[in-house]
Design brief:
The chain is of the alpha+beta class and about 425 residues long. The protein contains twelve helices and 18 strands. The longest helix is centred in the last third of the chain and has 20 residues, at about 405-420.
C-alpha cells in the first residue's frame, strides 16, 4: 500500500533481475546481471501449454499514468496512447506526433472533440501530467505517479539484498522437468527497496482462474467511479450455471444475487458461475481487456468464459504471465488502479480463499496470505500477497504441464520465497 514515508525518487538506478533457466549462476553473478539494467524477455521456448509471449516494447517504453479515477497509457515505441477513466475510454489511439526525448513522452491528441495534452516520463515512480481540454469548459490538469512493469526499486542498495532469491527460485524452476514454470516477486514493504525479481517472468501459460482477478478489478473500478454499487442485484438464471469450482451452482435459480456476493464468491470459492455472470454484467470480454490494455499488460487476455470447452477447442483461451500478475497486484496494493476501500475489499476476499492446497499449504500454519489459485489439467498457479508484517510481498507462481506436479512446483516456489523472507542472513533482517 502506498506509504507516505516511502522514498519515491525519479532518479532510480537499480533494475529488476530476470533469470532465464540457463542462468543458474552464483549469487554474485546474479547481482551483476541485476545491476546492469533490465534484461530482455526470458526465452522459455515453446513448451506444451505455454503460449509464445506477444511481441512487446521494452519495459521502459510502455508506461501509464495513474490519477484518481483513471489511467493514461503511453506506448512510446508504438506511438499510441489510451485514456481510460470514469468519464470514458478513448480506446488505443495513434499519436504519430508523439515526442520522445530525455526519457519523457509528450504530445497531444484529440478524440471526440476532447484534447489530451500529456507529459509522461518513461521511468516508473516519476510524476507525469495530463491536461484534458474540452470546449466550453476549463481545462482539467491531472497529475500522478507513472507506473511501469516492473516498477524500479525505491532503494537499489536495499533492493540488491533480494537478488539471491532469484538463484534459489531458478533452481526450483530448473528441477521442475515436467512443468515449465515462472515466478515473479515484488517487495511491497520497502524492506528490500520495493525491488522486483523474476525467473521466467514472461512465461505465458493458460491463465485458468487467475484471470478472475482482472474481472474483479474492473468491477471494483466501476464501483469507485460511482457507476455501480455492490448492493446492486443481478438476475442469475439456470442457463448461467456451470460446473467446476464454486458454490452458486448448488443454489436454486432464477434468483437475484448482489454484486457483492458475486465478487466475493468469485475469489473466495473461485466461483465459475459468478465469473461468467460478471463477464456478462460488465459487457463481455472487451471491458476487461480494455483494463488490461490500459495497464500495458501485454501477455494477458480474457478470451473465453469459464468452462466453455467449445471456445477452448476453437483456440479461444485466457492467458497471463507472472510479470503481468504482479503488475496488477502491485498497482492494486499501491492504490494506483483502485481506491483504498476497494483495494482493501479485494485483498479481504483474497484472504478468504478456500482453495488452500498451494501457497498456504507450503507455509507454516498461521502465516497471513491473500491469494488466488488457478487450476486446469495442464496448468497450476497460485498468486497473491504474503502479508507478513514488515515484509509484505506480492508473488506470482505460474506453471504449465501436469497439474499434480505443477501443484508441487508451486508449493516449492512458495516455500522458497517464505524461507528467504524470514531467515536471518538470507532475506530478513533481525531487528
Amino acid at each position: 500500500m502506498r506509504k507516505s514515508d516511502k522514498k519515491r525518487s525519479s532518479s532510480l538506478l537499480g533494475a529488476p533481475v530476470r533469470v532465464p533457466l540457463k542462468w543458474l549462476a552464483a549469487t554474485v553473478a546474479l547481482a551483476v546481471v541485476a545491476t546492469t539494467g533490465p534484461a530482455t524477455a526470458d526465452g522459455q521456448g515453446h513448451e506444451p501449454g505455454v503460449e509464445p509471449t506477444p511481441e512487446r516494447a521494452p519495459t521502459s517504453e510502455v508506461s501509464w499514468l495513474s490519477f484518481p479515477g483513471g489511467v493514461f497509457a503511453v506506448d512510446s515505441l508504438g506511438h499510441t496512447v489510451r485514456y481510460r477513466a470514469c468519464d470514458g475510454d478513448t480506446g488505443r489511439v495513434a499519436d504519430p506526433g508523439m515526442r520522445v526525448a530525455a526519457g519523457v513522452a509528450s504530445g497531444d491528441v484529440v478524440v471526440g472533440g476532447t484534447a489530451y495534452r500529456y507529459r509522461v516520463p518513461l521511468v516508473g515512480r516519476a510524476e507525469g501530467t495530463l491536461e484534458v481540454i474540452q470546449q466550453h469548459r476549463s481545462p482539467t490538469t491531472l497529475t500522478g505517479v507513472v507506473v511501469t512493469s516492473p516498477q524500479p526499486p525505491t532503494d537499489p542498495i536495499a533492493g540488491a539484498r533480494l537478488f539471491p532469491l532469484s538463484g534459489q527460485l531458478a533452481r526450483v524452476v530448473a528441477d521442475a522437468s515436467l512443468n515449465p514454470a515462472g515466478a515473479t516477486v515484488r517487495d511491497l514493504s520497502g524492506r528490500y527497496g520495493d525491488q522486483q525479481i523474476a525467473v521466467n517472468g514472461s512465461l505465458r501459460p493458460k491463465a485458468a482462474s487467475v484471470i478472475k482477478l482482472w474481472i474483479l478489478v474492473e468491477l471494483l473500478r466501476r464501483v469507485d467511479c460511482g457507476q455501480v454499487a455492490l448492493d446492486d442485484g443481478v438476475l442469475v438464471t439456470p442457463e448461467d450455471v456451470v460446473g467446476g469450482t464454486g458454490q452458486l451452482q448448488f443454489e436454486t435459480f432464477p434468483q437475484v444475487v448482489t454484486l457483492h456476493r458475486l465478487a466475493r464468491y468469485l475469489i473466495k470459492y473461485s466461483d465459475n458461475v459468478a465469473a461468467n455472470v460478471l463477464i456478462t454484467y460488465l459487457g463481455g470480454f472487451a471491458p476487461v481487456n480494455a483494463l488490461i490494455d490500459s495497464m500495458n499488460q501485454r501477455s494477458t487476455i480474457l478470451a473465453r468464459r469459464m468452462l466453455d470447452s467449445a471456445a477452448a477447442q476453437r483456440g479461444e483461451e485466457n492467458y497471463t504471465s507472472p510479470d503481468d500478475v504482479v503488475s496488477l497486484l502491485g498497482a492494486v496494493w499501491d492504490g494506483e488502479i483502485l481506491t483504498p476501500a476497494s483495494r482493501d475489499l479485494m485483498i479481504g476476499f483474497m484472504r478468504e480463499q478456500t482453495l488452500n492446497t498451494k501457497i498456504p499449504a507450503a507455509l507454516p500454519p498461521g502465516v497471513p496470505v491473500a491469494h488466488k489459485t488457478g487450476d486446469l489439467p495442464d496448468a497450476s498457479h497460485d498468486v497473491g500477497y504474503y502479508l507478513i508484517p514488515g515484509t509484505e510481498t506480492a508473488v506470482a507462481f505460474l506453471t504449465a504441464g501436469p497439474m499434480a506436479t505443477g501443484d508441487e512446483t508451486v508449493r516449492r516456489m512458495a516455500r522458497t520465497v517464505y524461507d528467504f523472507l524470514v531467515t536471518p542472513g538470507e532475506g530478513a533482517v533481525e531487528e
